[in-house]
Protein backbone atom coordinates (compact mmCIF):
# COMPACT_ATOMS: atom_id res chain seq x y z
CA UNK A 1 0.00 0.00 0.00
CA UNK A 2 1.53 3.28 -1.02
CA UNK A 3 2.25 5.89 1.64
CA UNK A 4 -0.64 8.27 2.16
CA UNK A 5 -3.31 5.92 0.80
CA UNK A 6 -6.46 5.33 2.81
CA UNK A 7 -6.39 2.67 5.51
CA UNK A 8 -8.18 -0.56 4.58
CA UNK A 9 -10.51 -1.79 7.32
CA UNK A 10 -11.81 -4.91 5.60
CA UNK A 11 -9.37 -7.77 6.19
CA UNK A 12 -10.28 -9.73 3.04
CA UNK A 13 -9.86 -6.61 0.92
CA UNK A 14 -6.54 -5.98 2.59
CA UNK A 15 -5.37 -9.52 1.85
CA UNK A 16 -6.15 -8.94 -1.80
CA UNK A 17 -4.16 -5.75 -1.79
CA UNK A 18 -1.30 -7.50 -0.04
CA UNK A 19 -1.12 -9.92 -2.92
CA UNK A 20 -0.63 -7.01 -5.30
CA UNK A 21 1.63 -4.80 -3.20
CA UNK A 22 3.51 -6.50 -0.37
CA UNK A 23 3.13 -4.66 2.90
CA UNK A 24 3.95 -5.69 6.43
CA UNK A 25 1.45 -4.06 8.74
CA UNK A 26 1.99 -3.95 12.47
CA UNK A 27 -0.88 -3.04 14.76
CA UNK A 28 -0.02 -1.80 18.25
CA UNK A 29 -2.73 -0.91 20.71
CA UNK A 30 -1.62 1.05 23.77
CA UNK A 31 -3.38 2.42 26.79
CA UNK A 32 -1.49 4.64 29.20
CA UNK A 33 2.00 3.21 29.29
CA UNK A 34 1.09 -0.43 28.64
CA UNK A 35 0.99 -2.18 25.31
CA UNK A 36 -2.02 -4.49 25.67
CA UNK A 37 -2.65 -5.77 22.16
CA UNK A 38 -0.18 -6.31 19.37
CA UNK A 39 -0.71 -8.22 16.17
CA UNK A 40 0.91 -8.27 12.76
CA UNK A 41 -0.25 -9.24 9.31
CA UNK A 42 2.75 -10.19 7.33
CA UNK A 43 4.34 -11.87 4.37
CA UNK A 44 6.29 -15.01 3.56
CA UNK A 45 9.78 -15.04 5.03
CA UNK A 46 12.31 -13.25 2.88
CA UNK A 47 9.64 -11.43 0.86
CA UNK A 48 10.67 -7.80 0.16
CA UNK A 49 8.08 -5.45 1.50
CA UNK A 50 7.06 -2.00 2.47
CA UNK A 51 6.35 -1.50 6.15
CA UNK A 52 3.66 0.48 7.92
CA UNK A 53 2.86 0.69 11.60
CA UNK A 54 -0.60 1.36 13.02
CA UNK A 55 -0.64 2.75 16.56
CA UNK A 56 -4.02 2.73 18.24
CA UNK A 57 -4.47 4.56 21.55
CA UNK A 58 -7.38 3.30 23.65
CA UNK A 59 -10.40 2.44 21.50
CA UNK A 60 -9.45 2.03 17.83
CA UNK A 61 -10.17 5.11 15.73
CA UNK A 62 -11.75 4.79 12.33
CA UNK A 63 -9.66 4.64 10.27
CA UNK A 64 -6.62 3.81 12.42
CA UNK A 65 -3.91 6.45 12.69
CA UNK A 66 -1.04 5.39 10.44
CA UNK A 67 2.61 6.07 10.97
CA UNK A 68 4.99 5.16 8.17
CA UNK A 69 8.10 3.55 9.59
CA UNK A 70 11.28 1.87 8.52
CA UNK A 71 11.47 -1.96 8.39
CA UNK A 72 13.83 -1.86 11.39
CA UNK A 73 11.30 0.07 13.48
CA UNK A 74 8.50 -2.29 12.51
CA UNK A 75 10.56 -5.35 13.31
CA UNK A 76 11.39 -3.77 16.65
CA UNK A 77 7.67 -3.35 17.31
CA UNK A 78 7.02 -6.97 16.36
CA UNK A 79 9.83 -8.08 18.66
CA UNK A 80 8.26 -6.01 21.44
CA UNK A 81 4.93 -7.70 20.81
CA UNK A 82 6.49 -11.03 21.79
CA UNK A 83 6.44 -9.88 25.39
CA UNK A 84 3.53 -7.56 26.19
CA UNK A 85 4.72 -5.80 29.35
CA UNK A 86 2.99 -3.72 31.99
CA UNK A 87 4.67 -1.08 34.11
CA UNK A 88 5.77 -3.48 36.83
CA UNK A 89 7.35 -5.78 34.27
CA UNK A 90 9.10 -2.90 32.54
CA UNK A 91 10.50 -1.89 35.90
CA UNK A 92 12.29 -5.23 36.15
CA UNK A 93 14.31 -4.57 33.00
CA UNK A 94 17.88 -3.28 33.36
CA UNK A 95 18.51 0.41 32.75
CA UNK A 96 20.21 -0.36 29.43
CA UNK A 97 17.21 -2.24 27.98
CA UNK A 98 16.13 -1.06 24.52
CA UNK A 99 12.49 -1.44 25.59
CA UNK A 100 12.89 1.36 28.13
CA UNK A 101 14.34 3.91 25.73
CA UNK A 102 11.02 5.12 24.25
CA UNK A 103 9.67 5.86 27.75
CA UNK A 104 12.85 7.70 28.75
CA UNK A 105 12.78 9.74 25.52
CA UNK A 106 9.11 10.63 25.94
CA UNK A 107 9.60 11.75 29.54
CA UNK A 108 12.68 13.81 28.66
CA UNK A 109 10.82 15.51 25.79
CA UNK A 110 7.75 16.15 27.94
CA UNK A 111 9.91 17.67 30.69
CA UNK A 112 11.63 19.94 28.18
CA UNK A 113 8.30 21.04 26.71
CA UNK A 114 6.94 21.71 30.20
CA UNK A 115 9.99 23.81 31.01
CA UNK A 116 10.39 21.87 34.23
CA UNK A 117 14.12 22.29 34.67
CA UNK A 118 16.72 24.99 34.26
CA UNK A 119 18.63 25.36 31.01
CA UNK A 120 21.53 22.97 30.73
CA UNK A 121 22.38 19.44 29.63
CA UNK A 122 19.45 17.07 29.01
CA UNK A 123 18.30 15.05 32.00
CA UNK A 124 20.16 11.75 32.14
CA UNK A 125 18.56 8.37 31.49
CA UNK A 126 19.34 7.12 34.99
CA UNK A 127 17.74 10.16 36.59
CA UNK A 128 14.57 9.87 34.51
CA UNK A 129 14.28 6.12 35.16
CA UNK A 130 13.89 6.83 38.88
CA UNK A 131 10.68 8.74 38.16
CA UNK A 132 9.43 6.22 35.60
CA UNK A 133 9.88 3.29 37.98
CA UNK A 134 8.22 5.24 40.79
CA UNK A 135 5.09 5.54 38.63
CA UNK A 136 5.23 2.17 36.82
CA UNK A 137 6.27 3.77 33.53
CA UNK A 138 3.17 5.90 33.18
CA UNK A 139 4.83 8.86 31.45
CA UNK A 140 2.14 11.38 32.39
CA UNK A 141 2.32 10.50 36.11
CA UNK A 142 6.12 10.34 35.96
CA UNK A 143 6.21 13.84 34.48
CA UNK A 144 3.98 15.16 37.27
CA UNK A 145 6.27 13.57 39.87
CA UNK A 146 9.40 14.96 38.18
CA UNK A 147 7.99 18.48 37.99
CA UNK A 148 6.90 18.30 41.64
CA UNK A 149 10.40 17.20 42.63
CA UNK A 150 12.04 20.06 40.73
CA UNK A 151 9.51 22.53 42.10
CA UNK A 152 10.02 21.73 45.79
CA UNK A 153 13.79 21.83 45.35
CA UNK A 154 13.43 25.31 43.88
CA UNK A 155 10.80 26.60 46.31
CA UNK A 156 12.20 25.12 49.54
CA UNK A 157 15.90 26.00 49.70
CA UNK A 158 15.73 25.88 53.50
CA UNK A 159 15.39 22.10 53.08
CA UNK A 160 17.03 21.23 49.79
CA UNK A 161 20.15 23.40 49.84
CA UNK A 162 21.92 21.54 52.66
CA UNK A 163 22.12 17.75 52.53
CA UNK A 164 25.22 17.37 54.67
CA UNK A 165 25.17 14.48 57.16
CA UNK A 166 27.90 16.23 59.12
CA UNK A 167 25.52 19.13 59.79
CA UNK A 168 23.16 16.83 61.75
CA UNK A 169 25.75 14.42 63.11
CA UNK A 170 24.71 15.05 66.72
CA UNK A 171 21.15 13.97 65.91
CA UNK A 172 22.35 10.91 64.01
CA UNK A 173 24.57 9.90 66.93
CA UNK A 174 21.47 9.86 69.13
CA UNK A 175 20.32 6.73 67.21
CA UNK A 176 17.52 8.71 65.63
CA UNK A 177 17.41 6.98 62.26
CA UNK A 178 18.38 3.74 60.52
CA UNK A 179 17.93 1.95 57.23
CA UNK A 180 17.96 -1.72 58.20
CA UNK A 181 20.61 -3.88 56.49
CA UNK A 182 18.08 -6.44 55.24
CA UNK A 183 15.16 -5.82 52.95
CA UNK A 184 11.73 -7.19 53.77
CA UNK A 185 10.11 -10.19 52.07
CA UNK A 186 8.97 -7.99 49.14
CA UNK A 187 12.42 -6.47 48.64
CA UNK A 188 11.47 -3.09 50.14
CA UNK A 189 13.92 -1.03 52.16
CA UNK A 190 12.91 -0.75 55.82
CA UNK A 191 13.51 2.60 57.54
CA UNK A 192 13.14 3.39 61.24
CA UNK A 193 12.73 6.85 62.76
CA UNK A 194 12.87 7.20 66.56
CA UNK A 195 11.14 10.53 67.12
CA UNK A 196 11.82 10.59 70.86
CA UNK A 197 15.55 10.90 70.13
CA UNK A 198 14.94 14.33 68.59
CA UNK A 199 15.77 17.06 71.09
CA UNK A 200 13.71 20.03 69.95
CA UNK A 201 16.03 22.46 71.76
CA UNK A 202 18.99 21.37 69.62
CA UNK A 203 17.45 20.57 66.25
CA UNK A 204 14.85 22.40 64.18
CA UNK A 205 12.16 20.45 62.31
CA UNK A 206 13.85 21.41 59.03
CA UNK A 207 17.12 19.84 60.15
CA UNK A 208 15.27 16.70 61.21
CA UNK A 209 13.44 16.56 57.89
CA UNK A 210 16.72 16.82 56.00
CA UNK A 211 17.74 13.46 57.45
CA UNK A 212 14.82 11.87 55.58
CA UNK A 213 15.80 13.66 52.38
CA UNK A 214 19.44 12.51 52.63
CA UNK A 215 18.34 8.92 53.06
CA UNK A 216 15.77 9.20 50.26
CA UNK A 217 18.31 10.61 47.81
CA UNK A 218 20.77 7.79 48.53
CA UNK A 219 18.40 4.83 48.43
CA UNK A 220 16.59 6.20 45.35
CA UNK A 221 19.83 5.58 43.42
CA UNK A 222 19.48 1.84 44.09
CA UNK A 223 17.71 0.14 41.19
CA UNK A 224 16.25 -2.51 43.50
CA UNK A 225 14.77 0.18 45.74
CA UNK A 226 13.33 1.96 42.71
CA UNK A 227 11.51 -1.29 41.97
CA UNK A 228 10.50 -2.39 45.48
CA UNK A 229 10.06 0.90 47.32
CA UNK A 230 10.32 1.43 51.06
CA UNK A 231 8.45 0.88 54.31
CA UNK A 232 8.93 3.14 57.30
CA UNK A 233 8.48 2.55 61.02
CA UNK A 234 7.99 5.70 63.12
CA UNK A 235 8.63 5.02 66.80
CA UNK A 236 6.85 7.76 68.74
CA UNK A 237 7.99 6.75 72.19
CA UNK A 238 9.05 9.96 73.92
CA UNK A 239 6.83 12.15 71.75
CA UNK A 240 6.08 15.25 73.77
CA UNK A 241 4.20 18.50 73.62
CA UNK A 242 7.49 20.13 72.58
CA UNK A 243 7.54 17.95 69.45
CA UNK A 244 3.91 18.73 68.69
CA UNK A 245 4.52 22.47 68.90
CA UNK A 246 7.24 22.20 66.23
CA UNK A 247 4.75 21.00 63.60
CA UNK A 248 2.53 23.74 62.19
CA UNK A 249 0.10 23.33 59.27
CA UNK A 250 2.49 24.89 56.75
CA UNK A 251 5.34 22.54 57.67
CA UNK A 252 2.98 19.56 57.84
CA UNK A 253 1.79 20.25 54.30
CA UNK A 254 5.32 20.70 52.99
CA UNK A 255 6.61 17.49 54.55
CA UNK A 256 3.65 15.36 53.51
CA UNK A 257 3.65 16.68 49.94
CA UNK A 258 7.38 16.15 49.47
CA UNK A 259 7.34 12.61 50.81
CA UNK A 260 4.12 11.47 49.12
CA UNK A 261 4.09 13.06 45.67
CA UNK A 262 7.40 14.82 45.09
CA UNK A 263 10.04 12.15 45.50
CA UNK A 264 10.84 9.21 43.19
CA UNK A 265 10.26 6.44 45.71
CA UNK A 266 7.33 4.09 46.23
CA UNK A 267 6.05 4.23 49.82
CA UNK A 268 4.77 0.71 50.46
CA UNK A 269 3.83 1.12 54.10
CA UNK A 270 4.00 3.46 57.11
CA UNK A 271 3.88 1.92 60.58
CA UNK A 272 3.41 4.01 63.73
CA UNK A 273 4.35 2.45 67.08
CA UNK A 274 4.16 3.80 70.62
CA UNK A 275 1.99 6.68 69.45
CA UNK A 276 0.55 8.66 72.41
CA UNK A 277 -2.93 10.09 72.40
CA UNK A 278 -1.75 13.67 71.93
CA UNK A 279 -0.01 12.66 68.71
CA UNK A 280 -3.37 12.27 67.01
CA UNK A 281 -4.02 16.03 66.56
CA UNK A 282 -0.70 16.34 64.74
CA UNK A 283 -1.49 13.35 62.56
CA UNK A 284 -4.92 14.84 61.84
CA UNK A 285 -3.11 17.94 60.56
CA UNK A 286 -0.91 15.90 58.20
CA UNK A 287 -3.47 13.38 56.99
CA UNK A 288 -5.49 15.67 54.63
CA UNK A 289 -2.39 16.33 52.54
CA UNK A 290 -1.68 12.64 51.93
CA UNK A 291 -2.90 10.80 48.81
CA UNK A 292 -5.62 8.24 49.42
CA UNK A 293 -3.24 5.42 48.49
CA UNK A 294 -0.80 6.47 51.24
CA UNK A 295 -3.60 6.82 53.80
CA UNK A 296 -4.55 3.20 53.17
CA UNK A 297 -0.98 2.11 53.87
CA UNK A 298 -0.72 3.72 57.32
CA UNK A 299 -0.92 1.32 60.26
CA UNK A 300 -1.13 2.39 63.90
CA UNK A 301 0.10 -0.32 66.26
CA UNK A 302 0.15 1.40 69.65
CA UNK A 303 2.42 0.29 72.50
CA UNK A 304 1.77 -3.44 72.08
CA UNK A 305 3.23 -3.55 68.59
CA UNK A 306 5.69 -6.47 68.63
CA UNK A 307 3.27 -9.16 67.51
CA UNK A 308 1.56 -6.81 65.05
CA UNK A 309 4.80 -5.92 63.25
CA UNK A 310 5.49 -9.61 62.64
CA UNK A 311 2.46 -9.65 60.34
CA UNK A 312 4.30 -7.17 58.10
CA UNK A 313 8.01 -7.94 58.61
CA UNK A 314 9.94 -11.16 59.06
CA UNK A 315 11.57 -11.23 62.53
CA UNK A 316 15.11 -11.49 61.15
CA UNK A 317 14.63 -8.12 59.42
CA UNK A 318 13.69 -6.22 62.60
CA UNK A 319 15.92 -5.25 65.54
CA UNK A 320 15.19 -6.99 68.87
CA UNK A 321 13.67 -3.74 70.16
CA UNK A 322 10.93 -4.20 67.57
CA UNK A 323 10.25 -7.88 68.07
CA UNK A 324 12.86 -9.26 65.69
CA UNK A 325 16.29 -10.83 65.91
CA UNK A 326 18.23 -8.68 63.45
CA UNK A 327 20.98 -6.26 64.48
CA UNK A 328 20.14 -4.04 67.46
CA UNK A 329 18.71 -0.60 66.77
CA UNK A 330 21.79 1.27 68.03
CA UNK A 331 24.05 -0.79 65.78
CA UNK A 332 21.72 -0.28 62.80
CA UNK A 333 21.59 3.48 63.41
CA UNK A 334 25.36 3.75 63.67
CA UNK A 335 25.85 1.69 60.53
CA UNK A 336 23.50 3.94 58.55
CA UNK A 337 25.15 7.07 59.95
CA UNK A 338 28.45 5.74 58.60
CA UNK A 339 26.82 5.12 55.23
CA UNK A 340 25.49 8.68 55.05
CA UNK A 341 28.90 10.10 55.95
CA UNK A 342 30.45 7.94 53.23
CA UNK A 343 28.13 9.58 50.68
CA UNK A 344 28.52 13.13 51.98
CA UNK A 345 30.25 14.27 48.79
CA UNK A 346 27.48 12.86 46.57
CA UNK A 347 24.80 14.45 48.75
CA UNK A 348 26.58 17.81 48.56
CA UNK A 349 26.66 17.53 44.77
CA UNK A 350 22.93 16.75 44.67
CA UNK A 351 22.14 19.74 46.90
CA UNK A 352 24.22 22.09 44.75
CA UNK A 353 22.92 20.84 41.40
CA UNK A 354 19.95 22.71 39.83
CA UNK A 355 18.00 19.49 39.25
CA UNK A 356 19.79 17.00 41.51
CA UNK A 357 20.76 14.97 38.43
CA UNK A 358 24.41 14.17 39.08
CA UNK A 359 24.44 10.96 36.98
CA UNK A 360 25.90 8.98 39.86
CA UNK A 361 24.38 5.55 40.24
CA UNK A 362 26.35 3.04 42.34
CA UNK A 363 26.73 -0.43 40.85
CA UNK A 364 27.11 -2.07 44.25
CA UNK A 365 24.48 -2.14 47.03
CA UNK A 366 24.82 0.94 49.18
CA UNK A 367 24.32 -0.78 52.50
CA UNK A 368 26.65 -3.42 53.87
CA UNK A 369 25.09 -6.86 54.16
CA UNK A 370 22.34 -5.83 51.76
CA UNK A 371 20.30 -9.06 51.89
CA UNK A 372 16.79 -9.91 50.83
CA UNK A 373 14.47 -11.34 53.42
CA UNK A 374 13.51 -14.92 52.84
TrEMBL record:
Keyword presence, Zinc: no
Keyword Transport tagged: yes
PANTHER family listed in its UniProt record: ALPHA-TOCOPHEROL TRANSFER PROTEIN (PTHR10174:SF225), ALPHA-TOCOPHEROL TRANSFER PROTEIN-RELATED (PTHR10174)
SMART domains associated with the record: CRAL_TRIO_N, SEC14
A single GO cellular-component term on record: cytoplasm
Species the sequence originates in: Oryzias latipes (Japanese rice fish)
Organismal lineage: Eukaryota, Metazoa, Chordata, Craniata, Vertebrata
InterPro entries, per the entry: CRAL-TRIO_dom (IPR001251), CRAL-TRIO_dom_sf (IPR036865), CRAL/TRIO_N_dom (IPR011074), CRAL/TRIO_N_dom_sf (IPR036273)
Subcellular location: Cytoplasm
The protein, known as: Alpha-tocopherol transfer protein
